[in-house]
Amino acid sequence: MFSTPYPFVFLAFTLILSLPLIFILMPHFLPPKHVQISLSDELDDLTLFRRAILASSSSSSSSFPSFLHRQSSISKPKIAFLFLIDSDIHFSPLWELFFHNHHNLFNVYIHGDPSRKIPLTGIFSGREIVSRPTERGSPTLISAERRLLATALIDDPLNMYFALISPSCIPLHSFPYIYRILFPAPIPRLHKMISFIEIIANETIFPERYNARGKDVMVPEVPYHKFRGGSQFFVLARNHALMVIQDHRLWRKFRLPCINWDSCYPEEHYFSTLLSMEDPAGCSHFTLTRVNWTGSFEGHPHTYKQHDISPELIYHLRQSNSTHEYLFARKFSPDCLSRLMNISETDLSLLFKDESQTLRYMAPKSCV
Q1: How many whole angstroms from its chain centre is CA 46?
Q2: CB–CB of 114/41 below 8 Å?
Q3: Which of 27, 89, 242, 309 is 20 to 30 A from 9, comparing alpha carbons?
Q4: Is 102 within 8 Å of 175 (Cβ atoms)?
Q5: Concatenated DSSP letters of 216-247
Q6: Measured between alpha carbons, how far is 107 from 155 in angstroms, rounded to an integer?
Q7: Residue 271: its H or E element
Q8: Does residue 337 register a pLDDT over 80?
Q9: pLDDT (0 to 100) of residue 235
Q10: Number of other residues whose CB lies within 10 A of the CB of residue 14
């Protein structure tokens, strides 16, 4: 036992002097903080999903076409464009041209960053849904996409396709062309509609991603041989959008926090895995959004700059090895806008003119 108080004073003084050093070094020893899904947010989402399921109760394959027949002759199935953004929609003037004169055939829904005041004008004004913080490589992105799907299902029963778009995406064809690709028949049958989503198996990086939450954590709901991956950006048919918001079983696994954050990209695996397990014959194994992964950096694809933009690039980006051409492309830097707008104004045969070529519709290959 100390006989004087001086050692205690010395220890206290040393601790006070060490506090700044502790605050500086602490981030290097503690795991980084990540955006979490709170219980209240999860319950709010479940309430939203239940509303969407109830609102879509008349959307079965047997009754929905008759619902379309009962509508006015000008009512047609619509495409819901789901914008998942964390920055300004720099290409909004381009999208305005793309949507021009087709307002009865589409709807727009935006999930933004609630911590930022992102200006939304024109067709985007007033289209932001209830949004929550998101973070790349976390289940919060899955939540945001499910929230977009549910809101679109509730908002308009004529929404039949749901296209997820990023702020760095651009359309590669005119709206009429894309519409005829998705709706080759005037009144679609839900059980004949396919979802355009990339589904890949057995990539070399998949074992690390599968075990990102811990070894064997995903079983038994998601055995490794059923684990799939693919592009985050999809075009889902209505029945598959419902399937996504009705899911609880796989979501319980994919919402778990990751141990290895360097391999944690649940948004690139959840949708592909779910649809491959639930309806492999009802979806394609390719996406309609072209992405260039050559020279990718830290998980980000190649970004096209202003000097890259040309009619030749647009034609090149449209080409694919699947049944359909690519309809959208990413990733473009904001400075590309002026050149893209110039192309759309000077070469209407390239963008936004209603292409007159005959469209072919072929049954896609089944998911793997």
Answers
A1: 19
A2: no
A3: 27
A4: yes
A5: TTTTTTS-GGG--B--S--EEEHHHHHHHHH-
A6: 9
A7: helix 270-278
A8: yes
A9: 98
A10: 9
Residue 365 Cα distances to 115, 193, 281, angstroms: 42, 13, 8
E runs forming strands in 193-341: 235-237, 289-291, 328-330
Q: What is the mean pLDDT of residues 233-256?
A: 97
Q: Where are the beta strands (DSSP E) in the chain?
A: 78-84, 106-111, 159-165, 170-171, 235-237, 289-291, 328-330
267 close to 144: Cβ distance less than 8 angstroms: no
pLDDT at 156: 96
367 in Cβ contact with 275 (< 8 Å): yes
For residues 322 and 133, the model is more confident at 133
Q: Which residues pair with 162 in a beta bridge?
A: 80, 236
The model's pLDDT over 113-134, given as tens digits with 9 standing for 90+, comes to 888 888 899 999 999 999 999 9
Q: What is the DSSP letter of 118?
A: -
Note the pLDDT tens digit of each residue in 47-87: 999 999 999 885 554 455 555 555 544 579 999 999 999 88
Q: Tell me how many domains the chain contains.
A: 1
* pLDDT tens digits along 272-308: 999 999 998 999 989 999 999 887 666 678 999 999 9
pLDDT for the residue 361: 33
DSSP 5: S
- The answer to whether residue 255 sits within a structural domain is yes
Cα-based torsion angle of the residue sequence 184, 349, 303, 211 in order, rounded to the nearest 10 degrees: 10
Is residue 245 one of the residues assigned to a domain? yes
Which residues is 304 bridged to in the sheet?
A: 332
- pLDDT tens digits for 20-29? 444 444 434 4
Does residue 66 lie within any of the structural domains? no
Asked if the structure places residue 354 within a domain, the reply is no
Encoding tokens for residue 24? 């500086």
Domain that holds residue 49: 39-59+74-346
Exposure of 89 in the CB half-sphere (CA atoms within 13 A): 26
Cα 1 to Cα 4, 12, 13, distances in angstroms: 9, 17, 19
Q: How far is CA 246 from CA 50, 131, 136, 149, 168, in A?
A: 8, 20, 23, 11, 29
pTM here is 0.85
